[in-house]
Amino acid sequence: MANVQYYDVILKPVVTEKSMADMADKKYTFLVNPEANKTQIKEAVEKMFEGTKVLSVNTLNNDGKNKRRGMVVGKTAKTKKAIVKLTAESKDIEIFQGL
């Protein structure tokens, strides 16, 4: 496995209706590096967002989709999502506040 730094772990937040509804329960969804494990994701969230304490991390691996363009067949890149649950006394993550 490659050496993954904490700022390389979280790629971008996932903004969907379901992820916005989960914010009431202090659950935040991120697109993460496919090589990152749960411990690295927890450390990255706590370092990137001040005052946050992670209670649990759930991950989902998505395989790439088959795509065709004429006779050429290929696959899109595989992705990994992480659902991060914060503790009750933890601060909220501000990047989601204006959405």
Secondary structure topology:
Layout: H1 6-9, E1 10-13, H2 17-22, E2 27-32, H3 38-48, E3 54-62, E4 66-69, E5 72-75, E6 79-86
Antiparallel strand pairs: 1-2, 2-6, 3-6, 4-5
C-alpha-based Rg, rounded: 15 Å
Categorize the overall geometry: globular
Order of helical and strand elements: HEHEHEEEE
Helix percentage: 10-25%
Describe this structure in words.
With 99 residues, the protein is of the alpha+beta class. It has a single domain (6-88), classed as RRM (RNA recognition motif) domain (Alpha-Beta Plaits). The protein contains three helices and six strands, in the order H-E-H-E-H-E-E-E-E. The protein has helices at 6-9, 17-22, 38-48, and strands at 10-13, 27-32, 54-62, 66-69, 72-75, 79-86. The strands form two sheets. It has a four-stranded antiparallel β-sheet. The protein has a two-stranded antiparallel ribbon with strand order 4-5. A hairpin with a 2-residue loop joins strand 4 and strand 5. The longest helix is centred in the middle third of the chain and has 11 residues, at 38-48. It is globular, with a radius of gyration of 15 Å.
Write a compact overview of the structure shown.
By secondary structure, this protein is of the alpha+beta class.
List key phrases describing it.
99 residues; alpha+beta; Alpha-Beta Plaits; 4-stranded antiparallel β-sheet; two-stranded antiparallel sheet; 3 helices; 6 strands; globular
